[in-house]
């Protein structure tokens, strides 16, 4: 067992490494760049680059890369070596300040949603000093933002950083009103819990659907699934334990604080929770975590599935984005305080989140939209596609008392006055009692639970940060001029609760009655990615992002296109994979089995024995093969037609309305055939074999 204290952060060019290795003056400049976003001078950049190179070489690196997060949602890197030729035919290892701070990857094959056509063809990467450089597989990785030469963001990181700036600015205004003169910066923090499946490599390799799409496109329900719920928090199997140990070691070396690990509800499903950190670093870390999970799994002859729904009828995987706001003085702004004043401040930030979530429900839904996640949301295993906030009864009662000027609690005689009364301590929610809520207050943070396991957390946090920044901006605008701050504050919170309480729901989100109730309340229910993305360019959403300088209009238009394009491409690959598997694997296998049955029937017939099982099975199979082949033919025609559609919105809608249901029909017939065909004929591992193979 490695000692975490010894290996923690050993592959990170962290603040402590920099403090130790850099000259005092240079370190000060770097610290200023990290804390205050000041640009590093070229001289300082050279010094940092040289020391970084030296450190990396000592650790066995020969190459470096600008590591960035294009709109694909995964990370990209292109390795350059430190090697430079010298005049005398030798080499030296060089890494300049310019190479550290700026790079020019060939951007042409990353999605730009039309941005490159309209602007400048090349893109460049720019060092983000707030996220430390690190070593991964012998390569020095430098976290960067990725932009076009026109300055348009081509990545997920740039808008996230801008959104952090937006919330910083507005939160500081609000904090000044409460007299927090010592606060100079506000950051959002995130701890993303990550779910995943681990399956055996051999099973994976025998399934083209898993290889091409990350999920099973066929597969009958096994006799045992997750009904017994005996996997949740159950004993971790030795092979999985070995994987988790290795995973922790690798994450610790990168300074990622993986803490808890446990089994999830579905067989073969697990979860890892890190300790929270600043949002942009948490985003980098989560991308790294996903990558390392896959690599470490390989070493153990396992495959880590990060798809949101690898198995039908079995819980899918999500990501719980625990989010809060804190000051550079160490105050968590979503933590109720001890004094009336702290409580008033807490209530205003809480109200800002409630307003933000209510007004930008659609954007939050969009931020988690993907073809894969569509299989989870609303499927009684993940939150519904309707956004609501869980506050818990204690906090809800307090808000009620404020809204209605009614006394709070049994003993209280007086009305609850903001800025005068101390709120009771809320018990921290440590249970699963609100698993069904998409957005739950858990004592000192919110847990946004709609994210799919495979997705980057960048967009969800960009939306959250910006929407809350807007709410805080409106509050600051109102309160800055008020003559009597305390009563203006009270009135503001009161009227905001009235306006936005429809978004608060403490009940069971899986309940059909809630969906009906939500509709009555006017909450949106955007069931699929195309349904959700249709609202991305709504005027209020453009106004939000543009006014806070998080996206330009062109950047939004491009992201809209990338969303739909990705959706169509994914469904196209899935449909093509299904067609291939049906035609090349399933139907031929069933056909062979039919011949065997027919031969057996004939052989038995010759000696006068009846073939009840064989005859019945053969006729069942014949009927199901017929419907499978019909579904196959329909899908193969439609898939050609849909690709001719040039309007991306119409194309995505056709995938959603036509292709998806044809895929379901093909799957239904084939899954039925699976239950009718002798096991030795079935061409790939079944659900049972995939889900219960790892011991
Ligand atoms: P709970 O007991 O409510 O589940 P935990 O302390 O176990 O809360 O934390 C769950 C996740 O939330 C962890 O990943 C943790 O790092 C994260 N978390 C805790 N506090 C914060 C915070 N202030 N901001 C962001 N994430 C947080
Ligand atoms: Mg959780």
Number of domains: 3
Identify the bound ligands.
adenosine-5'-diphosphate, magnesium ion
Instruction: Report the CATH C-level class of the largest domain.
Output: Alpha Beta
pLDDT averaged over residues: 91
User: What is the CATH topology descriptor of the largest domain?
Assistant: Creatine Kinase, Chain A, domain 2
Distance between the termini: 21 Å
Number of helices: 24
Low-confidence stretches: none
Largest sheet: 9 strands, mixed
CATH hierarchy: architecture of the largest domain: 2-Layer Sandwich
Shape: globular
Helix content: 40-55%
| Strand residue content | 5-15%
How many strands appear in the DSSP assignment? 18
Structural class comes to: alpha+beta
- The H-level CATH homologous superfamily of the largest domain, spelled out, is Glutamine synthetase/guanido kinase, catalytic domain
In short:
By secondary structure, the chain is of the alpha+beta class. It has three domains: 4-154, Roll (Ubiquitin-like (UB roll)), CATH 3.10.20; 163-551, Glutamine synthetase/guanido kinase, catalytic domain (Creatine Kinase, Chain A, domain 2, 2-Layer Sandwich), CATH 3.30.590.10; 566-691, Four Helix Bundle (Hemerythrin (Met), subunit A) (Up-down Bundle). The strands form three sheets. Strands 10, 11, 12, 13, 14, 15, 16, 17 and 18 form a nine-stranded mixed β-sheet that branches. Strands 1, 2, 3, 6, 7, 8 and 9 form a seven-stranded mixed β-sheet that branches.
């Amino acid at each position: 067992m490695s000692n975490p204290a010894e290996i923690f952060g050993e592959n990170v060019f962290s603040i402590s490494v920099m403090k130790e290795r850099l000259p005092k003056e240079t370190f000060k400049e770097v610290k200023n760049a990290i804390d205050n976003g000041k640009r590093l001078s070229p001289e300082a950049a050279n010094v940092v680059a040289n020391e970084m190179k030296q450190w990396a070489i000592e650790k066995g690196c020969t190459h470096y890369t600008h590591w960035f997060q294009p709109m694909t949602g995964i990370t990209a890197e292109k390795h350059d070596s430190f090697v430079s030729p010298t005049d005398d035919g030798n080499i030296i290892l060089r890494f300049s300040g310019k190479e550290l701070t700026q790079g020019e990857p060939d951007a042409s094959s990353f999605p730009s949603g039309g941005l490159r056509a309209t602007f400048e063809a090349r893109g460049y990467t720019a060092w983000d000093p707030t996220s430390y450089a690190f070593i991964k597989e012998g390569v020095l990785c430098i976290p960067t933002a990725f932009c076009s030469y026109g300055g348009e963001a081509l990545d997920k990181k740039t808008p996230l950083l801008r959104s952090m700036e937006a919330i910083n600015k507005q939160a500081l205004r609000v904090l000044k009103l409460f007299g927090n003169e010592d606060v100079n910066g506000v950051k959002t923090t995130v701890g993303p819990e990550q779910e995943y499946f681990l399956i055996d490599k051999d099973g994976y390799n025998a399934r083209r659907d898993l290889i091409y799409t990350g999920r099973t496109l066929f597969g009958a329900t096994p006799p045992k699934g997750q009904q017994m719920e005996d996997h949740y928090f159950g004993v971790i199997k030795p092979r999985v334990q070995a994987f988790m140990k290795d995973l922790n070691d690798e994450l610790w070396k990168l300074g990622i604080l993986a803490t808890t690990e446990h089994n999830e509800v579905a067989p073969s499903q697990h979860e890892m929770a890190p300790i929270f950190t600043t949002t942009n670093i948490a985003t980098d870390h989560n991308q790294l975590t996903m990558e390392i999970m896959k690599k470490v799994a390989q070493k153990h002859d396992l495959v880590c599935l990060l798809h949101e729904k690898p198995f039908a009828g079995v819980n899918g995987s999500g990501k719980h984005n625990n989010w809060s706001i804190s000051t550079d003085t160490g105050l968590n702004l979503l933590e109720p305080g001890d004094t009336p004043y702290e409580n008033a401040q807490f209530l205003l930030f809480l109200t800002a989140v409630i307003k933000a979530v209510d007004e930008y429900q659609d954007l939050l839904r969009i931020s988690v939209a993907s073809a894969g996640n569509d299989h989870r949301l609303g499927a009684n295993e993940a939150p519904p596609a309707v956004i609501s906030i869980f506050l818990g009864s204690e906090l809800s009662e307090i808000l009620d008392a404020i809204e209605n000027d009614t006394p709070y609690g049994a003993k209280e005689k007086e009305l609850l006055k903001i800025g005068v009364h101390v709120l009771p301590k809320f018990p921290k929610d440590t249970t699963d009692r609100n698993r069904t809520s998409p957005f739950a207050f858990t004592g000192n943070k919110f847990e946004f639970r709609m994210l799919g396991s495979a997705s980057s957390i960048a967009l969800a946090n960009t939306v959250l940060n910006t929407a809350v920044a807007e709410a805080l901006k409106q509050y600051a605008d109102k309160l800055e001029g008020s003559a009597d701050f305390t009563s203006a504050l009270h009135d503001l919170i009161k009227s905001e609760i009235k306006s936005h309480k429809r978004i608060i729901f403490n009940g069971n989100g899986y309940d059909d009655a809630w969906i009906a109730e939500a509709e009555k309340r006017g909450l949106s229910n955007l069931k699929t990615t195309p349904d959700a993305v249709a609202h991305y360019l709504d005027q209020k959403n453009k106004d939000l992002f543009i006014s806070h300088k998080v996206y330009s209009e062109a950047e939004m238009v491009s992201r809209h296109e990338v969303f739909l394009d990705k959706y169509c491409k994914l469904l196209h690959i899935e449909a093509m994979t299904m067609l291939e598997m049906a035609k090349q694997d399933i139907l031929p296998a069933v056909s062979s089995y039919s011949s065997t049955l027919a031969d057996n029937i004939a052989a038995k017939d010759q000696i006068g024995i009846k073939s009840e099982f064989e005859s019945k099975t053969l006729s069942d199979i014949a009927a199901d093969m017929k419907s499978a082949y019909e579904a196959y033919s329909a899908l193969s025609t439609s898939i050609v037609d849909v690709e001719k559609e040039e309007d991306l919105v119409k194309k995505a809608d056709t995938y959603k309305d036509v292709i998806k249901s044809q895929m379901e029909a093909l799957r239904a017939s084939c899954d039925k055939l699976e239950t009718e065909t002798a096991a030795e004929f079935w061409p790939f591992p079944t659900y049972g074999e995939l889900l219960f193979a790892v011991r």
